[in-house]
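Late entry, evening session. Most of the bench is empty. Finally got around to the prediction I had been postponing all week. Sequence below, unchanged from the version circulated by S.P.
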Amino acid sequence: MMARLTARRLPSSSLRSGSYIGLDPNALNIDFAGLSEIAPRWAGDLAFRLFCLPRFSEYRSSDHLVLVRRARFHLRGANMRKHRTAAGEVATYELLPEGEPRGSILIVHGWTSEASFMMALAEPLRRSGFRVVLIDCPAHGRSRGEQTTLVACAHAVVEVIPEIGPFDGIVAHSMGALAGLLAGVGEAALPMALDFKRYCLIAAPNRFLEITRRFADRLRASRAARVQFERHLERTAHMPLKDFCGSRFLSMIQRPTLLIHSRDDMEVPFHNALEMEAVGDHVALEVFDGLGHRKILYAPPVVRKVVSFMREIGPS
């Protein structure tokens, strides 16, 4: 017997800045496969709502809040600012080098993560002479909101640039890499494209459609429910999902790009890196083993590769 669905749509006036559609958490206790057969449009709507909730992601570990408290300790010396964007209020953290900066680097975290988890990369870049700014994407970290989309994250990155930019390079992890690439090409109705000289993309997915279909598979959504789910995604992306693709964005950007990926990454499989490497000579791939999807952010050999790659930017 299918459990009672308790999702409810909130009036637009009650949505907080950075939020999209209200969802009662009790709606998670349902037979989604059954719902998608008898009410596919409703199921597709619900799938989209769930997809936009970072805190309900299966990739967020059970000890996430404990890890956050530990990680934020390393941000204590950063200059934190809050910025108003169309996606809601977002937080940024600025780290300054000892002397004149040799350049500025933007760091973007992945889905369900936050800026503090990127400090193992940020601090060595700062010590190497760069001004480093980390961002908490909407509905992540100290930024506002419960619900967001990848496009909203890219919007936030673009909108804070007049206050904290420009940047010579970007270092981004996982879904943050797709957001950074989208900001670099300026599609999806973004106000402008950002001109990064170098991209360092760690454990980056290539095809957004692969991510969304895997999500629908886990929900056991019917074909009709998937159509409705993907209709919402394409509306927010302002493009067909097949075009929301890292390799397509890289072919448009034509900037030196370093991909870093571990062969044993179970969240973003290694084939994603191989597909993006094949785009052209401006894309290089550094391969590691045994670092998975998250340990790769803290491994000393990875940190050294990132710093060395960005140091080729030279003085501003």
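Two things to note before I forget:
The chain has eleven helices and eight strands.
The chain has a mean pLDDT of 87.
Will write this up properly tomorrow.
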